[in-house]
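Ticket reopened. Same input as before:
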Amino acid sequence: MAQNTRDIRRRIKSVKNTQQITKAMKMVAAAKLRRAQERVEQARPYAGKMEEVIGSIASGSGSANHPMLVKRPVKKTGYVVLTTDRGLAGSFNAQIIRTVLNEVRGKSHNEYALFIVGRKGRDFFQRRGYPIVGETTGLSDSPTFADIKSIANDVVKLFQDGVYDEVILVYNQFINAITQVPVTRKLLPLEDVGGKQETVQPGVHTSKYEYEPSAEAVLDNLLPKYAETLIFSALLESKASEFGAKMTSMGAATDNASKMIGTLTLVLNRARQAAITTQIMEIVGGAEAQNQ
Amino acid sequence: MRKMPIEIVTPERKVYENEANLIIARGGDGDIGIMAGHSPVVTTLKISALRVKTDGGDHTIAVSGGFLEVKPDKVTVLAESAELPEEIDVDRASRAKERAERRVKDSKSGDIDARRAELALSRALNRLEVAKIKTGR
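Engineering reply: fixed in the latest deploy. New output:
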């Protein structure tokens, strides 16, 4: 521990600066997390309502063989991957990327394609030459529906055109501020919408609603929107998760900095005391030499 | 007069909630007026102004792309976007209108961009129209 005290002081100062930054980032993330959570809540009635209406149409009118509801043999899969633009969020992006890699392992490049949201994911997959067909970066912290509409549109359209036979959404599900779980969710074909197709006898539900212009037209309009809504709500959850992860990791960083400052202060004090002791010894030694 | 609750929700938030006497909407098959006790119906909505008559006066809401669901006890509007007159950013809407007009002119009719531009134009016009109602009142 023969470090000189000036160097140690300098290190303490630099760690303190870093700590201030991580502390500020933690607080910002906490504030944003609260807002993101509110937005998740606000988006819920829309998705819920839509599911209800689709469920009642699909179960009632016998149009359950709409192209977006039908399962096809899977030749090509599209993955919609939600990552972040910025790092410093713990293992957030690493988790997502690992999940995707597990999914596509063993598949050749023409069996799947990636739609990436977020700079981090894009950089990773681009650098390694994965087939990226769509990307959206630079989303705001409170994304609007319009922000992801283009990518959602593309995905839905490519599925309808038969380019992809299934579309899977990969994102971090928000459990709470410290837990986020990467999930894969089948977006298209829309299976078990409403969840009650089988239990309802045909004909019973038909009289429930009238449709204008027609049940098929309403369904035609509604299903793509529903898929877009699913992507949007996943995005909102992913944002909430991002801030949760950021808050946790920045909190940990702040704690680590405190610990480091503690250790360094101890080392500093030891070095200082050692220096003082040496000085006293020198003085005492000098005085004694003169007395003789 | 019997009233019915109406609710307008978008993916982002709940825009409007009230007790209505009469709702007038532009559906996929033309205008439709709904009063309490209407039979259950689901209709697509055109980009249009939705009018709601209540005891507290008439309200107009700009909706673009969505659905109207009538249940025996409730009316729900699911719209991609919906705005009350006072929420509309008139400057933004007029800019959007000019942009869309330019695009409509530039692109060939029939291709997807032209279709998109036309939709954008009708959204902008709808917003401007609804925003005018506020100032006229």
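Strands of chain B lie at 4-9, 14-20, 22-27, 30-35, 41-45, 48-54, 57-71, 74-83. Residues 37 and 104 of chain B are 43 Å apart (CA to CA). Please confirm and we'll close it.
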